Amino acid sequence: MPADPDNPQLKKPDMYESLRDDGASKEKAARISNAAARDGEQQVGRRGGSSPSYEEWTVPQLKDRAKELDLHGYSDMTKDELIDLLRDH
């Protein structure tokens, strides 16, 4: 599949959109879809790690992750708002 003309950095735009629909952040979806284009989906699936869904994280854990990503404005957010922030960064 050719690269997406709207975002030439995405090598598998359909996979990217599917990952975004499943709740992956923009960064994670791009990283996975580009690795799949480079190495093949089976390779990426085999070496992928596991992490609990953001819904399973505590608010302090979500705030720590937002801080790691250098996001701003999260200190007074609810859990749902933090999850949206992390997924949409």
From TrEMBL:
For this entry, the protein name equals Rho termination factor-like N-terminal domain-containing protein
Superkingdom in the source lineage: Bacteria
Matching entries from Pfam families are given as:
DUF7218, Rho_N
Which segments constitute the Rho termination factor-like N-terminal domain?
55-83
Biased-composition ranges for Basic and acidic residues?
9-30
Which residue ranges are recorded for the region named Disordered? 1-59
Family annotation (InterPro entries): DUF7218, Rho-like_N
Q: Name one GO biological process term.
A: DNA-templated transcription termination
